[in-house]
Amino acid sequence: MRIIQLLPTLSYGDGVGNDVIAIDQIIKDMGYKTKIYAENIDKRIKKGLADNVEKMPKLNQTDIIIYHLSTGTVLNDKLSEYAGRKLVVYHNVTPAHFFRQYSRRAYRLCDKGRAGVRKLRDVAEYCWAVSEYNRQELLEEGYRCQIDVVPIVIPFEDYAKEPDMAVLRKYEDDIINIVFVGRIAPNKKQEDLIQAFYYYKKYIQPKSRLFLVGSYQGNEVYYERLCNYIERLELTDVFITGHIKFDEILSYYKLADVFVCMSEHEGFCIPLLEAMYFQVPIIAYAFTGVKETLAYAGLKFDEKDCCVVAEMIHMLVENKDLREKVIAQQNIRLKDFTYEKIRDQIINNLKGFIG
User: Fold this and answer.
1) What per-residue string of b and e applies to 255-293 under the rule 16 or more CB within 10 Å gives b?
2) Parallel, antiparallel, or unpaired: how do β-strands 85-90 and 33-41 relate?
3) In 98-189, which ranges are continuous DSSP H helix?
4) Tens-digit pLDDT profile for residues 19-43
5) pLDDT attached to residue 231
């Protein structure tokens, strides 16, 4: 029996890619033959770790395919054609409407991805959803197989690496740093964060700046609109990094005084846990997967009011007791996502599926 992991794109350093690579090692440690196959493989991925899907061997009925569902791809249509048992890992697919006015390609991919979710409900024998929010989506789409919540495996040891010193030296001063990490994309609602920052900087703390850390590749139209918005507000302290190296990302977490998330769609939201790891207090819009990932941790709001968000930032910066309490709660919540805990869950769930 072989256990094959299959996905459209194996990217370097992203949440899905890290999850796939971590699961690969867990399966190997269990003693099973395994391999990762993808349509596209990042050149930075360790050679030999994965092969193109065209090189996937002919499978038999005793083999297991772990298929990572996160976007529109022909693999959503082909999965039923492969022999073997199918375990679908649902990372979520961003609703297409977010991209309607910004990117035809992203709109089509997400629309096709959502269709793939519906198509696979009769193909999957078993599912892992990376959050309860994702699990509920599968149930709403009519999935009848067993669905277990299995969070993404996060390589926290990577965050102990040295940050980029040039970034630290450039911004280590007495200016308040507000940070959000995530793709520059319409569902992340970076414009709402810019608006909250405008209020905070103009009416509360002039000595402040906002870092939006993430790539805008594929979302150039949205990025340009953000830049135009920043210009109209006459803000000079908003920095959109674009794609940067991992050690530079670590530096922005080190610099952060507050992490603010105003995203309107997340299946899980790994940067929340990254902020917890770096002891950065979180303020977040409690919507979709964000509410579940945070649980009792961080400061959350249910309705968007940029003035209120700005005041919340002020409280976390100025109120030491509140800040320490929020970080303490985040530290407790972070323990629910340790590598060992999720590894053991994956092992037990796999053993149960294998039978």
Assistant:
1) bbbbbbbbbbbbbbbbbbbbbbbbbbbbbbbebbbbbbb
2) unpaired
3) 104-119, 132-140, 165-171
4) 999 999 999 999 999 999 999 999 9
5) 98
